[in-house]
């Protein structure tokens, strides 16, 4: 991220901020979409995050940390949108595991539906760390900065998230109890 | 199904690379850019010295001076005229014989009923609007003996952000089923001014008229004062809104300027025992709009407890900020630039049990 542009945006230069936003929005939208699994919530989270970035820029003391700081606001915006969805639309299926579909135990590769179901069972904390690591390919240090948590906590969240994800995928693919597969 | 961990990670990464659906970043960006004009930048919740580069300790000394001035000026402003400047203040709501429970506020947590969560400040309507009122609401805690707005609990039926013109002043208007219209304008850090929270009262007809307005510009409280018929008003006079309860809000800022998301217990652990003792075991107060994120905690206090906390904060070495105290009663405790600081400030609790943000915009 261009430091000069960040500094100009901090001083209230809307053109500079628009340039920053132009670079960040597609990435933020894609990241939020993967965490929330809902494009409308992801759009709202991205918009909320970008406007919070604009509002909060003057208080950012180190322009070099802009990217990590902005990721933190994005993740928080994702949390807020998910909470809002829960508060106002309790029937919203966003956070509920999709129980439809019957797994085919014969498949040897992880299928997208299994992953989708397994991923939706994760908490937002776990989803965020998985997406930042395995989609954005951030280092553990960067994830720690982006989430505002110690590196050890980030690593442990990732470990448990992946373990949970794998267990869920395997459970999903396992034949139902009582059924014997030849 | 068993497979190697490496191939499992490959599968996850391949799956994550595929978008779960269509993404239209351009339209999102267009909305962001369209909202910029209505989204003034916020500078900080802490004094200027915290934003100086580490080592600029001069600011710390200025903070101490600001504390003294802040206490003097703040006291004058709060008790005297509400907000800085020689403004005319409408009389406070009746000072006569407040009921004991009203004067102290209810000690029990109240039912919170949101309708709906107030929209983001960024959605405020733009355009010209009448001049700012000279009447002012309260900033900080009310004068001793003033009666809180009644009834203590009210059902929020509408809520909308207010804004206008080219100056970034923003506020929130809240309309209650009992006719109370409570609103404020915050004029930005640069102007260091706020109307404080103001109360007017509508008749049932007025409530319905306002609820029927779709255009946010028409719902600007100052414009309503001119546009609504006299039958819509039970009390058109602008008066300070005197809450029965306050939210004591806490946020921590780390040396790099972040607000870390900390558990409330961690925040309380950073406070002197005489301060944390007054805040421990308090019910959290919900925030009724988009002003705070998870790094903030707000705890409900009766007005009497808020006064006690105010005294203890002053006695415990918390600094005040002269400029910010023109629109907010706020204290800071920290070791100077580059270190962790904790801020505590007071927000009025509205009749629906939520709080807003006195300096948002």
CATH top level assignment of the largest domain in chain A: Mainly Alpha
Q: In CATH terms, what is the fold-level topology of the largest domain in chain A?
A: Rna Polymerase Sigma Factor, Chain: A
Number of β-strand runs of chain B: 9
What class would the helix/strand composition of chain B place it in? alpha+beta
Q: Estimate the strand proportion of chain B.
A: 15-25%
Order of helices and strands of chain B: HHHHEEEEHHEEHHEHEE
CATH architecture of the largest domain in chain A: Orthogonal Bundle
Secondary-structure element series of chain A? HHHHHHHH
Mean pLDDT rating of chain A:
78
- Largest chain interface and its two residue counts? A-B, 60 and 50 residues
Helix content of chain A: 55-70%
List low-confidence stretches of chain B. Answer: 45-68, 70-116, 164-168
Query: How many separate domains make up the residues of chain A?
Result: 2
Give the termini distance of chain A in whole angstroms: 57 Å
Outline of chain B: globular
Structural Rg of chain B: 22 Å
What does this molecule look like?
The complex is a heterodimer of chains A (182) and B (361). By secondary structure, chain A is an all-alpha fold. Chain A folds into two domains: 94 residues, RNA polymerase sigma factor, region 2, helix turn helix motif (Rna Polymerase Sigma Factor, Chain: A, Orthogonal Bundle), CATH 1.10.1740; 80 residues, Orthogonal Bundle (Arc Repressor Mutant, subunit A), CATH 1.10.10.10. In chain A, 68% of the residues lie in helices and 0% in strands. Chain A is elongated. In chain A, 46% of the residues are buried. In chain B, 26% of the residues lie in helices and 17% in strands. Chain B contains nine helices and nine strands. A five-stranded antiparallel beta sheet of chain B has the order 1-2-3-4-5.
